[in-house]
Structures are given as C-alpha cells and as structure tokens.
Amino acid sequence: MITLLLGSDDFSKKNFIDALVLNKGAFLSVFSEATEIPETGALLESDLFSKPKVFVLQNIMPDFGSVNLEKCILTLNQIVISLKSLDKRKKENKELLSNPKITVKEFSLPHGRELDKWIQNRVSFYKGKISQNATEALAVRLGRDNGKETKVAGKVIAVEEVFDLWQADSEIQKLLAFAEGGEISRQAVLDLVPENAEVDVFDLTNAIADNQKQKTMELLGRFLKEQTGGDEKGSIIQLNALLGEQFRNVAIVQDFMAVKKPENEILDATGWKPGRLFVMKKIASRFPAKKIIDLLNKLEALDEELKSSSIPPRVLLDLILSQLFI
User: Fold this and answer.
1) Which one, of 240, 242, 255, lies nearest residue 298 by Cα?
2) Cβ proximity of 224 and 316 under 8 Å
3) What b/e readout covers 99-123, taking b as 16+ CB neighbours within 10 angstroms?
4) Other C-beta atoms lying within 10 Å of the C-beta of residue 227
5) Is there a contact between 16 and 105 (Cβ–Cβ < 8 Å)?
6) CA-wise closest residue to 55 among 91, 221, 41
C-alpha cells in the first residue's frame, strides 16, 4: 500500500506513522536520502513470520514507473511518502493524487484560532488542565498571529506559520511540569514561554517597497534583536545576504516581465510556487529597475565594508537603507 503525507506539520505526520506501526505491529524503516532507497523488491518483501513493514521515504518522491507502482500499491507493506508539497502541475503527480488506490493525507499546521483548540486538546491528551486565558497567551507566544498569508484575488492560497508543533508540545510539557498537577495559568505562560515573533525578510522587502521608513527600521530592529546566537556584526551580515537574495529575485522577475515571459515559464525557470511569484511580481512592480540595481550594488558594498571596516555595523546598515527613502 502507498500512503502520501503532504504538508508542513511533521509533528502530526510522526504521530500518524507511529500509530500505523503500532496498529500493524510492523517493522519501521525510514529513508531520508534518495540514494538510500532500496530496490522495489526490498519494499515488497516480508519477513519469515509475514510481519508487515512500514517504509517511510522522508522528503523523497521515488520514480516508481507504472509496473512497480502497481506492485507497491498491492503489497501488504506500507510505503509512506512524506513531502512538504507536491508539484501538482506535473502529469505524474496529478495521476498519483487522483489514484483511488493511493491514500493521500494533508497535514497542515493549525492556523489562527485552530492553534488554541490544538493546545487545549494536547493538554487534555496529557491529562492536564489549562485556563482559557492561558491558552490564548500560549497561542500568542507561539506566534499564532504572526502567520504569513499569501493571497491571490482576495483568496488565501498559502499560509506560512512561524511555529511548529514540536515546539508547542515541548512548551506544553514544560508548563504541565511546572503546574504539578494543577491548572496551567496565564502568568506561568508569560513567565516561562518566550515570544516567537519571527521577522520575515518578505516583511522588510514589502515595507521598503511601500516606502514605509519607520516600519522598515522597526522590523530591522526586531530582526537583529531575535538573532541572539551571534554578535550584531554577524547578524547584519546575515540580514544583508537575505536582502541581497530577495532583491536579486526582484531583478530577475523584472527582467522576465520586461520580455513578457509567461508565468508558467517563469515558474519552471525559478522553481517557485505560484503564490511566491505573485508576491515577487507585486514587489517588482513597485521599484524602478534602476533603483533595484543601485540597491544591489550598495548591499554588495555594505558586505565588503562590514568585513573590513571599523565603522559600527548598524551605522552602515542604517545609512544604506535610509538612502532608499530619499
């Protein structure tokens, strides 16, 4: 049998696979590299006691071929393919998704208020208790309200969360241990759970594109504050690289738009998802091409200065970005 697990919620995928192995009393084998995948015959074979096996292909989409695909569908073993997403434009992927003999399950992270419900259910799973205002506080701390929505024609086509359920589960277990059998309180959440408010480089790019100087500087400060793993200079070098990559993508899109290249060809050339291309085209339309090239040159100069100059890194970065709003 073949089961296809799609989505970014690896925590729930892991729980699904664990339950599958337990219910079938099966052996589990996990493969995360394409070169590790055994031959089709090995995926089909059973042991001397006819004990089923569960093979998990992590972030790998194998090329079965029509004959081997049918054999893998009919085997008593479970072949689980776990992917974040699948390009639905490809003919072979469309056929997989529409095949009634293949089980397809979506595992998306809870969005918005769905996270509150997930927290309450998880606390109940551990036989614990949590107050409503503590649930609200924990969801906010985890980043419930910081998810990035991509919209096309007013419709949400993609959501990117700043949290994962591994983190959420870990925080819940910590809070339950602190509560020592009592109810998790809002104050405990505020005292023990750090705020997860990730700054996306897309936010910075959009703020620059919208000519919002104050918001740009606020986001810049938040980004640097979050980079606790290194010094300020290292964080600014990292941010400079991210901005450079983002604006190079803007320049690429502007070139494509200038020659009126069709969207499907842009997607094939870049490997992007339609939602990302929509956002990049929106940003590209707000900048004169000359300004983008000028900015890229300044970011390149900033990188050299950061690595060789004694001038404070934040002063250099503020100087470069402030010139965008003249």
Assistant:
1) 240
2) no
3) eeebeeeebebbeeeebbebbbebb
4) 15
5) yes
6) 41
pLDDT tens digits, residue range 266-323? 888 888 777 678 778 888 888 888 888 888 888 888 888 877 777 777 787 777 777 6
Reported as a single tens digit per residue, the pLDDT across 219-263 is 777 777 666 455 677 778 878 888 888 889 899 999 999 998 888
Q: Report the alpha-carbon distance of residue 136 to residue 84 in Å, rounded.
A: 28
**Long-range contacts made by residues 183-186, C-beta under 8 angstroms, separation at least 24?**
183/129, 183/130, 183/131, 183/134, 184/123, 184/128, 184/129, 184/130, 184/131, 184/134, 184/138, 185/131, 185/134, 186/131, 186/133, 186/134, 186/136, 186/137
Report the residue count for the chain: 326
d(CA 4, CA 95): 13
Q: Name the nearest CA neighbour of 137 among 93, 196, 178.
A: 196
Burial of residue 17 (CB within 10 Å: 0-12, 13-18, 19+) is: buried
Which burial class, exposed, middle or buried, applies to 50 when counting CB atoms under 10 A from its CB (0-12, 13-18, 19+)?
exposed
Going by C-beta distance under 8 Å and a sequence separation of 6 or more, which residues neighbour residue 83? 4, 5, 6, 59, 61
Hey, is 183 helix, strand or coil?
A: strand
